[in-house]
Specification:
Helix content is about 35%, strand content about 25%. The chain is built from 4 helices and 6 strands. The chain has a 6-stranded antiparallel beta sheet with strand order 3-2-1-6-5-4, sandwiched between helices. The chain starts with a helix and ends with a helix. The chain binds methionine sulfoxide. The site of methionine sulfoxide has 15 residues, from strand 1, helix 3 and strand 6.
Length: about 150
């Protein structure tokens, strides 16, 4: 088992623990950021239950961000929620619909989390490395988001 696959097992252990939902999400952010050096900011955005076309910042690990609320369609996060698809921006300088959090960020991946076919949140990862994300990152993070969906 390689290290990314191993992460999936560790996420399952966190999900099955006695922690609260927010504590679990935060523990998953800490785990991913600590274990993958290319991941410089790891966080969750959750769909606002009172305003279903907006995302609210949830637990995260990394620098604070001014983007606490993001409408569907805006930025990489809003596009992933609107298109219901994982978005990998290997070079954010090429993105016209982008919300900057830090000048150090070079690439970003956003993976939607589905519950009964509906987007309920997403996992957002920023990297200070250009083209930081492989197809293996994508498939492992999608699997991790399927597991997280159980508690949302
Ligand atoms: N860059 C994101 C905004 C969220 S921050 O990366 C934490 C975007 O374009 O949607």
């Amino acid at each position: 088992m390689n290290s990314l696959e191993h992460l999936t097992r560790e996420v399952e252990t966190i999900i099955d623990s006695e922690l609260t939902v927010n504590e679990k999400l935060r523990a998953i952010c800490n785990l991913l950021r600590a274990r993958v050096s290319r991941y410089d900011w790891v966080g969750f955005y959750l769909v606002d239950k009172t305003k279903l076309n907006e995302l609210l910042l949830g637990p995260f690990d990394g620098e604070p961000t001014e983007h606490a609320r993001i409408p569907f369609g805006k930025g990489i996060c809003g596009q992933a929620a609107h298109r219901r698809k994982t978005i990998v921006a290997q070079d954010i300088s090429q993105e016209s619909n982008y919300l900057s959090c830090s000048p150090n960020v070079k690439s970003e991946m956003v993976v939607p989390i589905f519950k009964n076919g509906i987007v309920v949140g997403e996992l957002d990862i920023d990297s200070h490395t250009l083209s930081a994300f492989t197809s293996e990152d994508e498939s492992v993070l999608q699997r991790i988001c399927e597991i997280i969906s159980r508690i949302l």
